């Protein structure tokens, strides 16, 4: 695996490029996003992890990446994200993206509910050009369903770093923990 791919795929995943696909999604606070994806798709997903993506690498605090505290400062360019490992035989990227556009408000720039800052922006960070095209088509499909302009960034994944273990499966470990009230599945 090249150094470039190491900085794009979670170290927590047992990723096999011949059978697995990766999509990285930003939809506000990652605790709720991770929880909803796990609950909705269950065993159709191989893994869901939380971390930070598409920021400025000059803010890295170590070889392992960047810290939650640093990202919440708001000046790193990193977004809180979920990285989803899946097999296309079990679930399609279109299904994952349809859920994404129903789970959060993609029209609010740099915020979800009371969580405000660039780290809470909406984004789809694709692992390859084919997935990038699917993501852009999904955004275009969902635009007419929203009253305001969708602000979701659709880009190739530039970098990814895992959040600390404390943040992984946070709402499973802390059922009464904070979940952004803007995260719910909309009937649209």
TrEMBL record:
<dbReference type="GO" id="GO:0034599">
    <property type="term" value="P:cellular response to oxidative stress"/>
</dbReference>
<protein>
    <recommendedName>
        <fullName>peptide-methionine (S)-S-oxide reductase</fullName>
        <ecNumber>1.8.4.11</ecNumber>
    </recommendedName>
</protein>
<dbReference type="GO" id="GO:0005737">
    <property type="term" value="C:cytoplasm"/>
</dbReference>
<dbReference type="Pfam" id="PF01625">
    <property type="entry name" value="PMSR"/>
</dbReference>
<dbReference type="InterPro" id="IPR050162">
    <property type="entry name" value="MsrA_MetSO_reductase"/>
</dbReference>
<feature type="domain" description="Peptide methionine sulphoxide reductase MsrA">
    <location>
        <begin position="23"/>
        <end position="179"/>
    </location>
</feature>
<dbReference type="InterPro" id="IPR036509">
    <property type="entry name" value="Met_Sox_Rdtase_MsrA_sf"/>
</dbReference>
<keyword id="KW-0560">Oxidoreductase</keyword>
<dbReference type="GO" id="GO:0008113">
    <property type="term" value="F:peptide-methionine (S)-S-oxide reductase activity"/>
</dbReference>
<dbReference type="InterPro" id="IPR002569">
    <property type="entry name" value="Met_Sox_Rdtase_MsrA_dom"/>
</dbReference>
<comment type="similarity">
    <text>Belongs to the MsrA Met sulfoxide reductase family.</text>
</comment>
């Amino acid at each position: 695996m090249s150094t470039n791919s190491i900085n794009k795929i979670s170290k927590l995943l047992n990723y096999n490029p011949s059978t697995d696909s990766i999509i990285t999604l930003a939809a506000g606070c990652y605790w709720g996003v991770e929880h909803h994806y796990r609950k909705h798709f269950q065993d159709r997903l191989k893994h869901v992890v939380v971390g930070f993506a598409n920021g400025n690498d000059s803010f890295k605090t170590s070889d392992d990446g960047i810290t939650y505290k640093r990202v919440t400062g708001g000046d790193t360019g990193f977004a809180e994200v979920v990285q989803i490992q899946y097999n296309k035989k079990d679930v399609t990227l279109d299904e994952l993206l349809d859920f994404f556009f129903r789970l959060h408000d993609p029209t609010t720039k740099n915020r979800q509910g009371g969580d405000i800052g660039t780290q809470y922006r909406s984004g789809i960070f694709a692992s390859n050009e084919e997935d990038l095209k699917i993501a852009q088509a999904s955004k275009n499909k969902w635009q007419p369903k929203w009253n305001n302009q969708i602000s979701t960034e659709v880009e190739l994944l530039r970098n990814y770093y895992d959040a600390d273990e404390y943040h992984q499966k946070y709402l499973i470990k802390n059922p009464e923990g904070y979940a952004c009230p803007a995260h719910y599945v909309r009937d649209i």
